[in-house]
Amino acid sequence: MALEFIAKDPNTDGANCPTAWVDHEAEEMLFQGWKPDEAKLAECLQTGPIPDSEGVVRVPFRMIDAIRKACDAAERSTVQ
Questions:
Q1: How many structural domains is the chain composed of?
Q2: Nearest CA to 21 among 3, 2, 9, 35?
Q3: Deepest of 25, 43, 54, 74, by most Cβ within 10 A of its Cβ?
Q4: How confident is the model at residue 14, as a pLDDT?
């Protein structure tokens, strides 16, 4: 199985909430989060354009532990 579920936002009801996964085959981390509002997106665009094939999501600080776990899982899969 390539996609490893890491965690959902611990402060939500478990539905439609920020989530972290690791795709070992593609060597990528995936994050579900909230879309930024227009003002925040405009701030992001100040550093450069965002291609149609990419997006910006908001993930709360309370997901830091899940992001660390995703990083650890990704790192383990690349260690040989």
A1: 1
A2: 3
A3: 74
A4: 73
Which residue, 76, 74, 75, is CA-closest to 23?
74
Q: Is the pLDDT of residue 66 over 90?
A: yes
Scanning the structure block, which residue is given the tokens 């579920």? 5
What residue type is assigned to position 80 of the chain?
Q
* 14: helix, strand or coil: coil
Q: What is the pTM of this model?
A: 0.81
| Phi and psi angles of residue 59, each rounded to the nearest 5 degrees, phi first | -130, 125
pLDDT at 40: 96
Residue the block writes with tokens 């402060």? 11
Tokens of 62: 């309370």
Domain span at 46: 3-78
